[in-house]
Amino acid sequence: MSAEVEFTIKNLDHLLQLWTNTYNNAHKPDWSHLLPYYAEDIHFTDSVQEIHGIKEFSAMVNRLTKRSGELSMYIVHAIQNGNLIFIEWEMTILFKKTRTSVIHGASRLLLNEKGKIAEQRDYYDLWGDIFDNIPGFNKMYRRFMRKTFG
């Protein structure tokens, strides 16, 4: 009789090991080792989308993989308080046909009672961090943002 493998987040170090390996497999993102640690009813939100369920989450990470030439993650800071984990990160991404961009962000993860990621909320300024790498346009964009939003 074979024992079923238990995919639970054991502690913060375990999560960070899984998390950073996701983005550093020959600089091509690969979530296959991490997806089993997400709950079936995962609720994911970022500045672009809101997703419910592991099928939709898997489809989203596969789309990102296809769009990315390279992707790596540097963990700036991480902290855990019970079932709540907060990670500050810098993601370096090379979208096809663009220059490399560094996106600064943070993720709030909530683990369920089984130790799986039940909620993930990513916070970042996608357009600002990408536009900052486009010569000429970067200054126009930042001027527009200051003028429009203070």
Describe the structure concisely for a colleague.
The protein has four helices and six strands, in the order αββαββββαα. With 150 residues, the protein is of the alpha+beta class. It has a single domain, classed as Roll (Nuclear Transport Factor 2, Chain: A).
> What's the architecture in CATH terms?
Roll
Distance between the termini: 64 Å
Mean pLDDT: 84
The backbone outline, from C-alpha atoms, is globular
Protein structure class:
alpha+beta
If you had to describe this structure to a student in words, what would you say it looks like?
The model has no long low-confidence stretch (mean pLDDT 84). The chain has a six-stranded mixed β-sheet. It has one domain: Nuclear Transport Factor 2, Chain: A. The protein has helices at residues 12-23, 54-67, 126-131, 137-149; strands at residues 38-45, 50-52, 68-81, 84-95, 100-111, 117-124. Helix content is 30%, strand content 38%. The longest helix has 14 residues, at 54-67. Strand 5 (100-111) and strand 6 form a beta hairpin. The chain contains four helices and six strands. By secondary structure, the protein is α+β, with helices and mostly antiparallel strands.
Map the helices and strands.
Layout: H1 12-23, E1 38-45, E2 50-52, H2 54-67, E3 68-81, E4 84-95, E5 100-111, E6 117-124, H3 126-131, H4 137-149
